[in-house]
Amino acid sequence: MSVRPDDHARIVARLRASGSVFAEDEAELLITEARTPEELEAMVERRVSGLPLEVIVGWAEFAGLRIVVESGVFVPRRRTEVVVREAVALAEPGSVVLDLCCGTGAVGAAIHAAVGGVELYASDIEPAAVRCARRNIEPLGGQVFEGDLFEPLPASLRGRVDLLVVNAPYVPTDAIALMPPEAREHEPHVTLDGGADGVDVQRRVAAGAAEWLAQGGHLLIETSREQASRTAQAFRDGGLTAEVRRAEDVDGTVVIGTAA
Ligand SMILES: C[S@@+](CC[C@H](N)C(=O)[O-])C[C@H]1O[C@@H](n2cnc3c(N)ncnc32)[C@H](O)[C@@H]1O
Q: How far is the CA of 17 from the centre of ligand 1 (A)?
């Protein structure tokens, strides 16, 4: 829809006053997405109250795709594109890809878009994430399971996974309080909390990965620059090799390993 210049300026001012750094861009997006003045007003109100922009408009841009985002589901971040890039470099048509801790399923969907004909599976413990991931993954012919890490997966996947791609929670518990309100108030703690040193869930993934990987298959886990050595140690403790890769343009870090 279009708005009068003074309404446009008023929206930008409200967004800026609420702490938005990109108020102009956000106003443009909300104005484009709203179908009526009432809807626009409601969207601005929700944004001013701190809801992530992606949840309000219902999608996030990730690796050149529009990924469906629903309330209560982790919003895919640009830095996670490092996992996609490294996975795509290792993938072949027909590769079996498992997106564990999938959230919206953005990582799996982006690999599918870049590599023809991958066999795609995803899982998450949160019902809201599973519902959302089904909207992104099932149209691609993929399947989404609900439960704790590997527990809900069909036994037939054991030993067949070529690419196990994981962005598990990795924020140290005490650091959650320091995150922007948008994340700490609107993304469930289960999507963020990696335990005392941030590596608890990653350790469990690395410990269980070898059983699910195909011969020569790879585990890729996103981490932070600060935690990369601990994530790599978790790989070695799980009987895997570990190599840390960085993508400076998106400020992303990933550890990659194969069964040693
Ligand atoms: C940081 S978010 C990442 C989501 C998605 N991979 C992405 O990059 O956008 C972590 C996800 O892990 C899920 N999760 C946390 N603990 C889990 C567990 N024990 N088993 C399965 N999923 C889990 C959360 O629900 C959340 O969706």
A: 32
